[in-house]
Structure formats: structure tokens, C-alpha cells
Amino acid sequence: MKHCNPTFCHTIQSCYGLSSAGASGLVHFDEQGERCMDYSIYDLQHVGGSTMFVPILNFESQTKSVRPTPMYASVTWPKGKPPSDVPECGFKDELCEWLTNEIALLAVLVIFPLIGVVAVLWIGVLMLQKFRLQTRLDDSNWWIINYSDITIIREPLVRVLR
Questions:
Q1: What whole-number distance in Å separates Cα of residue 58 and Cα of residue 38?
Q2: What is the domain partition of the chain in residue ranges?
Q3: Looking at CB atoms within 10 Å, which of 64, 89, 128, 156 has the fewest?
């Protein structure tokens, strides 16, 4: 302990090896008089007919060890197994080369707009083809007569007497 009253430091250092029940659980003191606490990791599980938090791992500060409890076996992991201690790309993305590779980024930045341009061109070709087909169909219907183009001539009825 760096900044400590000598009497208090001596009292705390004399507690080395002692354990006492604190407000948050069992408390130990190391050879420097520093407080060491045990910790537990809890998991929300269905136990019997109710849902409750149960301890699955215990950390002992004196031995610096982690011990699983019997409930550890019933933990349901998101991907079916416990997560890795190291993230997939590392803590600073140092394990994923493709993220730092400028050529890959450039390729992505070129390919996606290129795909968009090709899609727009393809839609344009399809619309042009539809327009040409419609024009050809309109030209092939030359024999159809619109009713408005018909002129009706009314001649007087003449009876022929014989």
C-alpha cells in the first residue's frame, strides 16, 4: 500500500490470510493488505418451474482460479459453444487482413456501382425492346378500321316501280 497511515497499514497487513464476511461476500487480504474478493458469474436459467439467476462460474481470488459449478453444463450458448477468448478479428482488427487491404476495399467500391450501372442498362434494353415490339404490333394492325374513320352516306330510298 503506497499512501497509507503506518498504523493502519500494519493492522491491514496483519490481516493476511484472514477471511471475513463482507457486504458483498467473502473478503480476503493479500500480503500487501489489499482486499481480494471472490466473484461469481450468473446465468438466467429455468430451474424447476421458475426462471432465476444461478451461478455458473466462481472466481477465487486467493488461488486466482475459475471453477465451474454444476449449472455450467446447462448453459445455452448462442452458437452452441462458449465464445472465444479473442474476437474473430482481434481486439484492434489486426487478425482480419481483408479489412486493411486497400485493394479489396477498392474492388468493393468499384464493383457495386458497376453492378448498379449494368442493372440500369439492362432495364433500359428491356424497355427499348418492349417499345420496338409494341411499334411492330401497331404497324401490323393496318387492316383494323377505327369507327370514327367510317363515313355513312345516306341516299334517299328510291322505289323502282315496274
A1: 7
A2: 1-37, 38-83, 99-140
A3: 156
Give pLDDT, residue 120.
97
Distances in whole angstroms, Cα of residue 27 to Cα of each of 99, 111, 117, 136: 46, 61, 68, 92
Category of 109 on φ-ψ map: left (φ > 0), alpha (ψ -120 to 50) or beta: alpha
Dist CA 136 CA 128 (whole Å): 12
- Report how far residue 72's alpha carbon sits from residue 158's, in angstroms, rounded to the nearest whole number: 113
DSSP state of 44: E
Question: What does DSSP say about strands 39-47 and 50-60: parallel, antiparallel, or unpaired?
Answer: antiparallel
Instruction: Please compute the mean of the pLDDT values over residues 31-45 and round it to a whole number.
Output: 81
Gap between the Cα atoms of 14 and 20, Å rounded: 14
pTM of the model: 0.41
